[in-house]
Write a structure and sequence with these properties.
Helix content: over 70%
Strand order of the largest sheet: 1-2
Number of strands: 2
Mean pLDDT: 76
Number of helices: 5
Number of domains: 2
Radius of gyration: 21 Å
Length: 131
């Protein structure tokens, strides 16, 4: 995830600046093309940032796996109307960061699939059990 931020994010930022530097020396028609290219690059930067947050949200790094899952459950509940909660079966369980990232992505996909394919709009409860 860090390489996505440092490599891709920083490279896109540099690419966004370059058309502006070139544009000073070009005819108007080519300046317009560079302007639209710069706008596309900016949209790509925003999409990349959103993807980084989805893949590995800040709470995962700041507070750990279970607080991040709790937050995800709240977000899914707010978006879908289906109550999602976390049941704490082993609160002392610790997970290293690489495992936490992988597990978080799995839980997120399972919750979104559950909501998408459940056919229910509300009134259903989905539980993520802590083991």
């Amino acid at each position: 995830m860090e390489s996505l931020h440092h490599d891709v994010g920083q490279n896109l930022a540099v690419i966004r600046i370059r058309p502006g530097q070139l544009g000073k020396e070009l005819p108007a028609e080519q300046k317009e093309f560079l302007k639209s290219t710069a706008e596309f690059i900016q949209q790509t930067i925003v999409s990349t940032r959103n993807l980084m947050v989805k893949l590995s949200p800040a709470p995962l790094y700041e507070r750990g796996f279970w607080p991040a899952v709790d937050r995800l459950a709240s977000q899914v509940t707010a978006q879908s109307g289906i109550e999602v909660g976390c049941e704490d079966l082993c609160p002392e369980t610790k997970v290293n960061l690489d495992t936490a990232i992988a597990l978080f992505q799995i839980v997120r996909e399972l919750l979104h699939s559950d909501v998408k394919h459940s056919g229910m709009k509300a009134g259903r409860r989905s539980t993520v059990r802590r083991i």
